[in-house]
Amino acid sequence: MPRLLATQSHVVHGYVGNKAATFPLQCLGWDVDCCNSVQFSNHTGYGMDKVFGNVTEKNDLDQLLCGVLGNFPHEYDALLSGYLPNKSSVQCMGQHYRRYRNANPQSIWLMDPVMGDEGQLYVNEDVIPEYKKLALSPSCLVDIITPNQFELEILNGENIGNSEQMKSALLKLHATIPVIVVTSCDFKMFNDPEHVYIVTSMRGEKPILLRVPLIKSYFTGVGDLFSALLLDRIYKLFSSNDSSVRLEDQVNDVLNVIQKVLKKTLSYAPKLKTAKMGSASDMKDMELRIIESRDLYEGDGSTSRKNFIYRKL
Using an 8 Å Cβ cutoff, are 305 and 158 in contact? Predict the structure, then answer.
């Protein structure tokens, strides 16, 4: 049974961060240990006046990671990092994860550089140089990153407005990171508001574009679930050494699962398409149906089903 250490947010009620990742990974046979970067009553979409809890202070986060990685120095087959609210938390996570990867080169690390979306930051600005250090350092030990286009632009240091600029940004980051999955692109780049576009890129290979029909609603925790499922697929891909299975096949499989989870969530909340941020009742409906989707996470196991694979970028 593989074991994972996940450092990202925690909410008592609802499903984002570690709450969105843990149960699906357990269903897939992972033993999951969680280190919480924040501990909130619920996610911030309910409105800041309805969010209670605290950010894990640097010293506390350091103590937790120092303790678990010191006591169990060779336990983890994979590391996952997600939402980290400030400079000190990114620094702390990076320091401990890099030390662990140095000592355990057979493990893999998926980093979701959570900073914002659609031109808007939702972390402190001081995290930006810290993520750049992790992603662009010659001694970078991150195996996989899952930025959206806005986060990729931040790491790249330049805007991305077309396919050539996207390929240039990917090439720059591939100097240090083997696998990049851009989880959503600006629809204007493809002049297609009816689909979500995802880019998968393996170092040394041409990037592949995947196209998924847009479900016109707002959901929370989707990126956290995506990263968790992707880590599972890539870990198994690397472990199998099966050259016939491609990265885009694994991403395609994860996207199929995500679509089914979103449809399952909608089936429980038919009014979700008109839900509004900041409304407690609407936000509750937007929570992913993580438990109800327990039979979906395995996927169909078929590499021949490539319904979302669109074309080379």
Answer: no
Cα 237 to Cα 3, 12, 33, 230, 246, distances in angstroms: 16, 33, 22, 10, 8
Of the chain, the end-to-end C-alpha distance in Å amounts to: 36
Give the domain extent around 302: 3-312
Amino acid at 141: L
Quickly list DSSP for 237-283. HHHHT-TTS-HHHHHHHHHHHHHHHHHHHHHH-GGGGG--TT-HHHH
Locus of tokens 């010191």 = 70
β-pairing verdict for 120-121 and 144-145: unpaired
Helix, strand, coil percent values for the chain (each to nearest 5): 40, 20, 40
Q: For 148-177, write each residue's pLDDT tens digit.
A: 999 999 999 999 999 999 999 999 999 999
Residue 19 sits at the vertex; the CA angle it makes with 229 and 46, to the nearest 5 degrees, is 120
Domain count, the chain: 1
For residue 15, give the CATH number of its domain: 3.40.1190.20
86 Rama class: left (phi>0) / alpha (psi -120 to 50) / beta: beta
Task: Output the pTM of the full model.
Answer: 0.94
